[in-house]
Structure formats: structure tokens, C-alpha cells
Amino acid sequence: MTDSPEFHDRMLSLGLARVSEAAALASARQIGRGDEKAADQAAVNAMREQLNMLDIAGVVVIGEGERDEAPMLFIGEEVGTGNGPAVDIALDPLEGTTLTAKDMPNALTVIAMGPRGSMLHAPDVYMDKLAIGPGFAPDTVSLDMTPAERVQALARAKKCDAEDITVCILERPRHQDLIAEVRSTGAAIRLITDGDVAGVIHCAESEKTGIDMYMGSGGAPEGVLAAAALKCMGGQMWGRLLFRNDDEKGRAAKAGITDLNRIYARDDMATSDVIFAATGVTDGSILAGIKREPGHLTTETILMRSKTGSVRRMTYRNPTK
How would DSSP label each residue in 91-125? Predict the structure, then answer.
């Protein structure tokens, strides 16, 4: 038996960008049409088709859900030609199905890839998340701090007042107390309706986005995708799984997780070098959305490699039939 071919991230990165672009282009017809399921299905189909063209032996570790819930790109699904390196794949074919259906900002197609065994197999439960951008000492903030303490600690690290800090939080009823406590410090809050992968990525480019910190609970699978992005861009992130019932604890056991209270750092969720690609579907603060012009569609994609810290922004002009 021969060893699996080496994970050549540089060679695979452009193919990953094509996967992300294809999913975005496929969902373009559904922007503003009000049909979330149709938008998601179009992106899923296109992403799966492109993945199966890559010379990889891929396994989806973060996907659309369990096999009985997701007919395509389900957790454990094998993708690729099978002739290349063994890789883990984390993906969200359309992060922001509601955003796409309503033509609201920051809908993205997102995918990350790393060597087999490099990504946390996060169950489909909530995760308490905290993220800041690059350039800070380790553990400047932590999940064990209160929300107010996090704001104050980051302000000290930035040598600014708490009033100069902006925190990104997912707008949900469960975050009412969190929002009130953050605002009690004088910090500003940017509320987002969906898309917390983009919310975390905002922290890595705070000068561009105006976001200094992300906090709050959201999907654990999206947490792994966000950690992969920050591993490429720089920044710190922590996540702690949240369980509402025994069924969710059972999902963790099925994923091989035994310590239910563990706090995962960024590099616990993405343990090896990864590549990450995201394409804008609707306009946002990270990427431009799909542009319709006579005879073609244009997309913008961000493509990143953690090994080199390289960040590429690419536009792709695709002729329409």
C-alpha cells in the first residue's frame, strides 16, 4: 500500500477558488427571488460538481448536515477523483441563504481544505465564539472573561477607549443580555442577521471593515470554517460547544468529542496548514457581490493559504449564454 500523495496547497488553491466561484455563479439567478432552498441547492450542486473534478481523495467533514438530512455534500461524503492527496473539506455552499433570497449584504460561498485529519469534526450544534484580529499578544481576550471584560481588555491592548471598539454580534433573541452588556461599556455593536463566518473574518481586516471583535453563539460548523480563514489571515479565535439536550451531546460523541466543556483555540479547529476560498454572492464589506453586465457575470473571490499567509483577491468574468 502506498502513502497518500502530499498535500500541495499551492497547486490545489486555484482549483478551490474555481469551486467557490462555481457555487456563487450558480446561485446568482436566485438573488432576490425569495427562495432560500432553491438558492442553496443551486450552490450545492455546482460546488459538488466542481469538487469532483479535483484530483483529491476528499472527505467532507463540515457540510450540509448528516447524510439523511443532506442528499449532497453531507458530512462523510467522499469527493474528488480519488487520485490525489487525502484531504478534509469544510464548506458552506451558500453562507447566507436568507441574505441571498432577500438580496441583502454579505452572502458568500465558502470552502476550506486541509490534509486529512486537520479539521475539527464539529457536530451540528451551537458554539460560543470569540475572535479578534492579528497583532495582539496571545490570550488578550478569552471566553472565560465576561463580555465587558473582553471589550475593556481589547481596548487596553489597542491603547484606546472602550468607546472606540466595535463588536460584531449575530442579531438573535438569545443575545439580548450579551448586547446589553457590551453596550454598557460604551462599545459600538454591528448587528448582523446571518453569516457569522463573514462576521469573524471582519476582525482580520478591522481597518477596512471597522470590526474589532466578534462574539456570540452560532453554528459550530461555521466556527471551523471561520477558524480556517483566520489561520490564513491572522487573528485569534476560540470556540466552546454548547449543548441544549442529550441528542446534541450524542452528536458530539458520534464526532469523537468526549470533553464537552473544552475550549478550542483557532489552531485546535484547524490543526495543519489549510487553504480557504470565498466568493461574494451579494455585496458585502469583505467581497463584492456578483455583477450582472451585458453578456457576462463577474465575481470576486478571496483565496488564502495559511502556509504562506498569502491573500489573493481575484475577479472572474464569466460569459453568459
Answer: EEEEE-HHHHHTT-TT-EEEEEEEETT-B----SS
Q: Are residues 68 and 23 in the same domain?
A: yes
- How many domains is the chain partitioned into structurally? 2
Of the candidates 309, 239, 308, 305, the residue with the CA atom closest to the CA atom of residue 267: 239
Instruction: Say if residue 91 is in the same domain as residue 162.
Output: no
* Residue 267 to residues 140, 194, 304, 306, 309, Cα–Cα distance (Å): 16, 25, 16, 11, 15
* CATH number, residue 282: 3.30.540.10
Q: Helix, strand or coil for residue 12?
A: helix
Q: Which helix (H) or strand (E) holds 132?
A: strand 126-132
Q: Which domain holds residue 248?
A: 126-269
Which CATH number characterizes residue 224's domain?
A: 3.40.190.90
- CA–CA separation, 130 vs 220, rounded Å? 12
The whole-angstrom separation of Cα 282 and Cα 321 is 21
Per the document, the length of the chain is 321
Mean pLDDT per 10-residue segment, the chain (321 residues): 69 94 95 95 96 95 75 88 94 94 95 95 93 95 98 98 97 97 98 91 92 96 95 96 93 88 96 96 93 92 94 90 69
Torsion-angle region of residue 263: left (phi > 0), alpha (psi -120 to 50) or beta?
A: beta
pTM value is 0.92
